[in-house]
Design brief:
The protein contains one helix and 30 strands. It is mainly beta. The chain has a nine-stranded mixed β-sheet with strand order 1-26-25-24-23-27-28-29-2, with no helix packed on it. Strands 6-5-4-3-30 form a five-stranded antiparallel β-sheet, with no helix packed on it. It has a four-stranded antiparallel β-sheet with strand order 7-8-9-10, with no helix packed on it.
């Protein structure tokens, strides 16, 4: 999800945003698209714990309200309902037998040692959207991208026009899973919408992505054409600090409209995925997609940059394939709060863009091959667009990933042939609401040690099992941790 950095939105703003969605969508993608955080999560139907049974969809069918449907090769194993369904659930990270789930009020630690019966270990209250999350050893990192009165977990919303307002990174010690301790904060310009962990032997680096500066914001003035690099000494995490702000777009990046109508102007990055084993990173930066070298973590260097001013409205996230010769970029058309998985929007907007990486060294190029979008049309009351996913590490030159599509559910799809991607499995629920646009669905869907874990905005944690010959080899790959945007070399773990 992305935001235009409008702070302290009230109920009235949420209602107004909902009313504007149809107008914005009819006019095509726009820079000032609504943020799902502007809308209240829809209530939907019942929220029963445990596994939910479903059925397979007929061609062209839209399931009933809150009805569970899935392909024959996917089995729902468990659901841990949200403690507060009015609070938006966000991203996931994994380490050992634990899953760490962000939400707009803090984060939750789950014990997933038994995937059929995950248990809540603890909930930490620390408001500050969207609480993007990653873990490394005894450290947990949390992103705050909403203007707060201070850096504490007791802070309240405060206008970004106030110089004293705070946004950035919070660091927790999670050695005691039942009692995490908040140990350090690092303020970053324009906050931290997302962050990406770059692991190292002595130091951890965080690439902090944020955007949409404003002359009225003392800590977020334009231009804002780069990322903040936070250095965290492993043995002294309380010394964490911003050590660099590399400019990735010296020319300002994509100007957006009116030069490129319906395209977001580039004023920073939304999300970055690093591939440390190859010293590579891919950045999804509003109006641009970039490939860059991270061999010197404090000095990332852009190798190639691409735009799609026809079908992409907002470059949102990126995923490398296992052989590091492809990147999948997502387009979050409508900001995650719109119904874009319908026939009217079509198959090429609000979709994934698949790019081959050609050449070597500094001559590497991103070459567009095709789009992928879920083939199941969603109702006009369902927010749906390409969102967060991860590889399923099947090896042998085959490329398969699992991906969240908000109320479009969870999709498993193959892009071994870059020009001919196809869905091979799915799990979704029917519309949360049938009389108006509702906010919900899977925010993140990731594969970790034999299962798919989905953090649903309103429904909580879903656990799915895939039984398919194409994904079976992944069951031999066992990870000790997974921060999806810090993409591992899976071959070392097979």
């Amino acid at each position: 999800m992305h935001t235009t950095r409008v702070r302290n939105r009230g109920v009235g703003a949420a209602v107004a945003a909902a009313g504007l969605l149809a107008t914005l969508l009819a006019a095509g993608p726009a820079h000032a698209t609504p943020d799902p955080g502007d809308l209240s999560p829809a209530a939907g139907g019942s929220r029963n714990a445990g596994p939910v049974q479903g059925r397979e969809l007929a061609a062209g069918e839209i399931p009933g309200q809150d009805e569970v449907v899935h392909s024959a090769n996917i089995t729902p194993l468990a659901n841990v309902p949200s403690a507060d369904p009015t609070v938006i659930n966000s991203d996931l990270a994994f380490q050992g037998r634990y899953a760490y789930a962000g939400n707009y009020n803090g984060f939750t630690i789950y014990d997933i040692g038994d995937p059929k019966a995950p248990k809540t270990v603890t909930r930490v209250l620390c408001p500050g959207g969207q609480n993007d999350i990653s873990v490394d050893g005894d450290l947990l990192f949390l992103s705050t991208d909403s203007s707060r009165s201070d850096d504490s977990c007791n802070s309240v919303s405060q206008p970004a026009t106030e110089k004293s307002s705070w946004e950035g990174i919070k660091i927790f010690d999670i050695k005691d899973k039942k009692n995490p301790k908040y140990i350090k904060s690092v303020e970053t310009n324009c906050g931290s919408h997302t962050h990406t962990l770059v692991p190292g032997a002595r130091d951890i680096y965080l690439y902090v992505a944020s955007y949409s500066p404003n002359e009225a914001f003392p800590d977020c003035k334009p231009p804002h054409d780069g990322i903040s690099v936070v250095k965290v000494p492993r043995k002294a995490p309380k010394q964490a600090a911003v050590v660099a702000f590399p400019v990735l777009f010296p020319d300002g990046g994509n100007p957006g409209g009116p030069v490129n109508p319906g395209v977001s102007a580039t004023t920073g990055c939304h999300d970055i995925t690093v591939l440390p084993s190859k010293d590579l990173a891919a950045g999804a930066c509003m109006g641009d997609g970039i490939l860059f070298d991270i061999s010197k973590p404090e000095q990332p260097r852009v190798i190639d940059r691409v735009q799609d001013n026809v079908n992409f409205a907002f470059w949102h996230s990126a995923t490398f394939n296992e052989q590091a010769d492809k990147v999948v970029f997502t387009d979050e058309l409508g900001g995650g709060g719109s119904a874009t998985c319908n026939e009217a929007t079509g198959p090429s907007r609000g979709a994934d863009g698949i790019y081959d990486i050609t050449g070597r060294g500094d001559q590497r190029k991103l070459v567009f091959r095709s789009y992928f979008k879920i083939p199941r049309h969603q109702a006009d009351t369902e927010n749906c667009v390409a969102h967060n996913g991860s590889l399923i590490p099947v090896g042998s030159g085959r490329d398969i990933m699992v991906q969240a599509w908000y109320q479009g559910g969870v999709s498993v799809w193959e892009f071994t042939d870059s020009s001919r991607p196809r869905e091979i499995g799915y799990f979704e629920r029917g519309p949360l609401t049938t009389d108006k646009l509702g906010l919900g669905g899977s925010w993140s869907a990731y594969y970790y040690n034999g299962h798919v874990y989905s953090n649903d905005i309103t429904k909580g944690l879903d656990v799915l099992r895939i039984d398919d010959w194409r994904t079976a080899p992944a069951k031999w790959v066992w990870m000790d941790r997974l921060n999806v945007q810090s993409q591992p070399d899976y071959r070392r773990h097979s």
